[in-house]
From TrEMBL:
Domain HAMP: 207-274
Protein name: histidine kinase
Subcellular location: Membrane
EC number: 2.7.13.3
Chain segments annotated as coiled-coil in the UniProt record: 255-286
Domain Response regulatory: 541-657
Keyword annotations of the record: Coiled coil, Kinase, Membrane, Phosphoprotein, Transferase, Transmembrane, Transmembrane helix
Native species: Variovorax defluvii
Length: 659
């Protein structure tokens, strides 16, 4: 039997994978969507094309195989039918003629006739390799007519019962193989043409879908970026584009509807944006106007406070000097009234000092001098400062420093803790206890001031650090303060890089606390030795410059009571002339900042520094505006703020006398 060829198998190299794009960047530009569309369209088309081509090619090859085999078998049967009598009779020439006649037909290249009796006839070339030949066989049987012959040999059989010989024909498969190859190549060519046509059609369809989607995507991206004037330009049916397939036209119509919806959305967004911008412009204009009004109000308030502070300090300073001068000579009947005057002046001085502190913080002229500070020294100083007040209020003070030290400014920290201790003494009530304790918390030290007073309700806790806010002083009793202490503490704490916290509840007392960086107690400098008692001021030569006659008179009286030599003038020009006099030597210059005729006290201070550098030049002023404080700080001027307590002035003059 002849082995039948296997079904057609397309070589791997001939199977298309990703068809090359006509435009080298088409797939890249199209993005993932176009690649997906190409994949979804080409893969099914490729599968169908390969399946159909394989089926048709396989059918063609089967037909060729069947025809080739049929021709070979037909020649073999024909030769067998023509050679039965000759083979039976042993007629070799006749058999040779039959074999040669079969060769002349051209279907076979070799014919062999043989039987078991030794008859063997062959015709055709024997040079062809056996690998190129295919053999076909047919048995030789006697035809039906040979039964009646009288010359049948003895023992012959009836026709068809037993073959008397065998015919073998050989066909050359070269042309057959060539035809099979042509069929295979034709099938592959048809498959490639089908694939290319499918790829081109799918690519065109994908681009017709991907390009409008890219425009829509760019429009959406522009809208997301805030470009609300962006619009889609996808054309629908009848939009002037080239004719397309029905599916493509349907897709384009749907994309056009999507683009139209996006354009409507963009128009709505643009209108909303314009309305929002208009509302924002109006709100901004209102906010700017209100901000300008607030800034103007704040500036007016600052100017008012500065002017009021200066105008109040002038007479208050003179009043304090006069009162201090009257107190030693007052009679027993006059002394209570003078003491009341002194108390009122002190309350006004405290209020003005608090306002000055607020102004200094607003002006940012306070620069903390950070250093290592022992809490034992701080608590000792605060204990001496508040001991008398606590004893008078029958309040017990407890100090627990635990040997800790912090990194902070000593003066500013003493101001914060001292204010908190003073408030705790005020609100503890009789037989109360105030605990000032420090404890370590990691790299920080927490300072707490606790009292067992009435506490602060939660509704007030958020506002107690506001200026002029007091919880239990609706009558504005000046003996309970002015509501500026905690506001100043909060601002100073912020200047030190911390904050003042609060824990309190009604009838459970209050705890104020702040945290500061811890320091090594070994790095704390020992306290300086106390200065010796100041010597009398007798003979101290003083020059007082002020345009207020009352202040000049009060200063003259007070300084003369201290046995000082005093010269007074209300003119800066006259003061500079006196300083330039070679016969006039002064130890102290007390000069007002704002003099008459727009004269500036700083010019007098500069002249004193230049003409008499050994003199103590002190600026005495009631001006506390931020600009003024910044200016004096930059010039490094010693400042006494009006009203000046006589004790403070005497202490300052004593330092000059000690030198």
């Amino acid at each position: 039997m002849i082995a039948r060829p296997h079904a057609l198998a397309v070589p791997a190299a001939a199977r298309p994978t990703d068809p090359p794009a006509a435009d080298g960047h088409a797939l890249v530009v199209g993005g993932s969507l176009q690649r997906d569309l190409l994949r979804l369209g080409v893969v099914p088309c490729a599968a169908v094309a390969l399946a159909l081509t394989g089926w048709f090619t396989h059918s063609r090859l089967d037909t060729l195989e069947a025809a080739f085999n049929a021709e070979g078998e037909a020649v073999a049967r024909q030769v067998a039918a023509m050679s039965d009598l000759s083979l039976y009779a042993g007629d070799l020439p006749a058999l040779q003629n039959v074999a040669n006649a079969a060769l002349r037909g051209g279907q076979v290249t070799r014919v062999e006739i043989s039987n078991s009796a030794g008859v063997y006839v062959t015709a055709g070339a024997t040079t062809a390799p056996m690998g190129q030949l295919r053999m076909f066989t047919a048995p030789v049987q006697l035809r039906e007519a040979s039964r009646a012959t009288p010359f049948a040999p003895e023992g012959s059989t009836t026709a068809g019962e037993k073959p008397i010989g065998l015919v073998q024909t050989f066909r050359d498969t070269t042309d057959y193989a060539r035809e099979r190859t042509r069929s295979l190549m034709a099938g592959i060519g048809i498959a490639m043409i089908a694939l290319i046509a499918a790829w081109a059609w799918v690519r065109h369809t994908a681009r017709s879908v991907a390009q409008p989607l890219r425009r829509i995507s760019r429009t959406v991206a522009a809208l997301e970026a805030g470009q609300f004037d962006a619009r889609c330009s996808v054309l629908g049916r009848g939009g002037g584009e080239a004719p397309a397939a029905e599916g493509t036209r349907r897709t384009q119509h749907e994309l056009a509807s999507l683009a139209h919806d996006i354009n409507r959305l963009a128009e709505r967004l643009q209108r909303n944006r314009q309305q929002s911008e208009e509302q924002v412009r109006k709100a901004t204009a209102v906010a700017l106007q209100r901000m300008a009004e607030a800034e103007q109000a704040a500036l007016s308030r600052a100017r008012f406070l500065a002017a009021a502070s200066h105008d109040l300090r002038q007479p208050l300073h003179a009043m304090g000097l006069f009162i201090d001068g009257l107190l030693p000579t007052a009679t027993e009947a006059q002394r209570p009234a003078v003491l009341r005057l002194q108390e009122g002046a002190e309350f006004m001085g405290v209020l003005l000092d608090d306002l000055l502190e607020i102004s200094r913080l607003d002006a940012q002229v306070l620069t903390p001098a950070i250093g290592s500070l022992s809490l034992a020294q701080l608590f000792d100083a605060l204990g001496a400062q508040h001991a008398a007040r606590a004893a008078a209020a029958n309040v017990r003070l407890v100090w627990r420093d635990r040997g800790l030290a912090v990194q902070s400014d000593p003066a500013l920290l003493q101001r914060i803790v001292g204010n908190l201790v003073g408030n705790a003494i005020t609100h503890s009530g009789p037989d109360g206890t105030v605990l000032v304790a420090a404890r370590r918390r990691g790299g920080k030290v927490r300072i707490e001031v606790r009292d067992n007073g009435v506490g602060i309700a939660p509704i007030h806790q958020a506002r107690i650090f506001e200026e002029f806010y007091q919880v239990a002083n609706t009558e504005r009793d000046r003996r309970q303060g002015f509501g500026l202490g905690l506001a100043i503490c909060a601002r100073i704490a912020a200047l030190l890089g911390t904050r003042v916290g609060l824990r309190s509840a009604l009838q459970a007392g209050s705890t104020f606390f702040l945290e500061l960086p811890a320091a090594d107690p070994r790095d704390v400098q020992p306290p300086a030795a106390e200065a010796v008692a100041s010597s009398p001021l007798a003979g101290l030569r003083c020059l007082v410059v002020d345009d207020d006659p009352a202040i000049l008179d009060a200063s003259r009286v007070l300084l003369m009571q201290w046995d000082c030599e005093v010269e007074c003038t209300d003119s800066g020009t006259e003061a500079i002339r006196r300083l330039a006099d070679p016969d006039a030597r002064f130890d102290v210059l007390l000069c007002d900042l704002q003099l008459a005729d727009a004269e500036d006290g700083m010019e007098v201070i500069d002249a004193a520094r230049r003409l008499q550098p050994d003199a103590l030049a002190v600026l005495v002023s009631g001006a506390t505006g931020p600009e003024t404080l910044q200016r004096l700080r930059q010039r490094g001027v010693t400042l006494l703020t009006k009203p000046v307590a006589p004790a403070k002035l005497r202490a300052l003059l004593s330092t000059k006398r000690l030198k």
